[in-house]
Amino acid sequence: MRLKDKVAIITGAAAGIGAAAAEIFVREGARVLLADRNGEGIAALAEKLGPNAASFVVNVADSAAVKAMIEDATSRFGRLDILVNNAGYGIPGSVLDTSEEDWDALMGVNLKGVFLCSKHALPVMIAQGGGVIVNTASNVATNIAIYDRAAYCASKGGVAALTKAMALDHADQNIRVNCVAPGVTWSTYFDKMVGTTPDPEAFKAKLQGRSPMHRWAQPAEIAQAILWLASDDASFATGSMLTVDGGMSSWCGAPR
């Protein structure tokens, strides 16, 4: 049990990668606070996972709400060893097509949310002598981009840079900070898109065609990477980005 006696917060835990990480963390011995805007989703998952899971409704772009989340975890479980900053979403649009309001809202969750959750979690970790932060970035964070997702690409690039900055700033305090960089991973987001597209099979084929493995990832595959970064198995890893994208970022043949 790689996380035995550890306490973790996972944001964006109601579905997808966050929910898969929560299931694996509990199975590996952690006590986990599931955090999300979707109160019904995290409550149902917490009930499924049993006494080592609890839920907390939060908007990660709201500093007061994030502070309350950290206080809830520490008062409930007594400490905080792991923070998984997974909450995030994407919107279509180039710079020209993206409104200022949509840009600000996305940055508030995808990038400011990482900042706020880390800002309020770090003092707890420092006081107890160490901890681990794992951020969910994306394979679009550094060397590649995808069409028609300008705000999303920018936000995930910011997550990757912030990860490195925090790793440097807090290495002397026994705090490791890393990020995972998924490729296309099936989620409720894609479920909704499939439901609105005129040709669902063509849409799925396009997603699968982005990877030389000709498939998308399952959330549990990304959650396993998060588990490794969060565990003592990754004890010498900090400031790193673990890319788990089926080879997409190494493949110049990826279609539009």
UniProtKB/TrEMBL annotation:
InterPro entries: NAD(P)-bd_dom_sf, Sc_DH/Rdtase_CS, SDR_fam. Belongs to the short-chain dehydrogenases/reductases (SDR) family. Keywords: Oxidoreductase. It comes from Ancylobacter crimeensis. It holds the Pfam family adh_short_C2. This is SDR family oxidoreductase. It comes from the Bacteria. PANTHER family: DEHYDROGENASES, SHORT CHAIN, OXIDOREDUCTASE UCPA. CDD domains: SDR_c (cd05233). Gene3D superfamilies: NAD(P)-binding Rossmann-like Domain (3.40.50.720).
